[in-house]
Write a structure and sequence with these properties.
GO terms for molecular function: oxidoreductase activity, acting on NAD(P)H. By secondary structure, this protein is of the alpha/beta class. Helices cover 29% and strands 24% of the residues. The chain is built from nine helices and 15 strands. The longest helix is centred in the last third of the chain and has 22 residues, at 286-307. Bound molecules: NADP nicotinamide-adenine-dinucleotide phosphate (NAP).
């Protein structure tokens, strides 16, 4: 593409984003140039801006992972959808592209690889579409991380349960939706004002994590329901110890598996017979990662959005200012949100 576009760049480590003109890139053979209409924010964005972690390999950097918009141009190897003019959502992240600023989300035109670009049904707005990419993929990565194949479909008589600690978070809402589709009976923690919403997404029972007896409440429900709870996704910081407290009572003599999404510190709590793994996509090779991304976006997400079995979540909270508003919106996310996804219109 000839010309330039506006981008919010991070000029150096621990700086504020600045809006500047950048050259608009050409797509690689398997890539799509997207005219960005909406950007969603994630904790990794303010962490990279304010601490440089996870590492930012190239400065000036273009941060961000989640966009929705319109296809502007497609690479030579892309012969079918998405055609130019299509409404799409995409995971546009320099994280999987050696820090390449052309692939970051915080700009008017970004590059995404075709495996991570999905057509947006007409009923889903750009703002809603932007809530999905990285958090949806993270929810699926979690199952794969602890050895649960994405082909798994438990039947009710299998009595397989899962605990999702932090269900109202962005990743948590997709953990709930995908756990239901895998066939788990889904036990979730969240603040009380989110319980009804999480039940609409697929939670069988939701517990207020502020309650001093939340662990025994969950254990009692599992025992009453007569299900096997050996599996958990800890979505938020601080969720590992109470999750292990639950599993101690519910796993019996069986082995249990826990996937933890925030950074897993070396001195994290442990429990005999429980395997604890940090949530990360399969990256043994580029081919393995691309196949996994295709399964996440083109098998699970495209089909889920078309059939209505996956819905954008949680509700969006639109912040003003477009690219110029990103610093303030990231500051707001850093303070904390409750069951909302911060989105900017671009
Ligand atoms: N490993 C990976 O690949 C990967 C990828 C993406 C994100 N992450 C990480 O995943 C985590 C979640 O990210 P996110 O964007 O989904 O977060 P988020 O939406 O910002 O999380 C906010 C929610 O966290 C909930 N929460 C906070 N403390 C809680 C607690 N003690 N128990 C239960 N819920 C609690 C709050 O629930 P209530 O409103 O109910 O109070 C709030 O709604 C972050 O640490 C992020 O860095 C990891």
């Amino acid at each position: 593409m000839t010309g330039t576009h506006l981008a919010a760049i991070l000029p150096e480590k621990r700086a504020r984003l600045q809006v500047v003109e950048r050259a608009t890139p050409e797509p690689g053979p398997n890539e799509v140039v997207i005219e960005v209409k909406a950007i969603a924010l994630n904790p990794i964005d303010y962490s990279q801006r304010d601490t440089g972690m996870p590492p930012v390999p190239v400065y000036p950097a273009v941060l961000g992972c989640d966009v929705a918009g319109v296809v502007a141009k497609v690479g030579a190897n892309i012969t079918t959808a998405p055609a130019p003019g299509s409404r799409v959502l995409a995971m546009a992240t320099s994280f999987f592209h050696d820090g390449s600023p052309d692939h970051g989300a915080f700009q008017k035109y970004t590059l995404a690889q075709s495996e991570a670009v999905v057509a947006l049904p007409d009923a889903i707005s750009f703002e809603q579409g932007a809530t999905l990419p990285i958090c949806f993929m993270t929810a699926l990565n979690a199952w794969v991380t602890i050895g649960i194949s994405l082909d798994t479909r438990y039947a009710p008589e299998d009595k397989q349960a899962v605990l999702i600690w932090g269900g109202a978070s962005s990743v948590g809402t997709f953990a709930v939706q995908t756990a239901k589709l895998l066939g788990f009976r889904v036990y979730v923690t969240a603040s009380p004002w989110h319980h009804e919403y999480l039940e609409t997404l697929g939670a069988h029972a939701v517990f207020d994590y502020h309650a001093s007896d939340v662990v025994s409440q969950i254990v009692d429900a599992v025992n009453r329901d007569g299900v096997a709870l050996h599996t958990a996704h800890c979505v938020v910081i601080g969720s590992l110890q109470p999750t292990l407290d639950v599993l101690k009572e519910t796993k019996g003599a069986s082995a249990a598996r826990v996937v933890y999404s925030p950074p897993l510190l070396p001195d994290h709590p442990t429990l005999d017979g429980v395997e604890i793994k940090w949530n990360f996509p399969p990256m043994q090779s580029e081919a393995v990662l691309n196949k996994h991304m295709y399964e996440c976006f083109h098998v699970w997400l495209r089909n889920g959005l078309e059939s209505g079995t996956i819905v954008p979540s949680p509700p969006v909270q639109i912040e003003d200012g477009g690219l110029e508003g990103l610093n303030a919106a990231l500051d707001k996310l850093k303070v904390g949100v409750s069951g909302r996804k911060i989105v900017l219109q671009i």
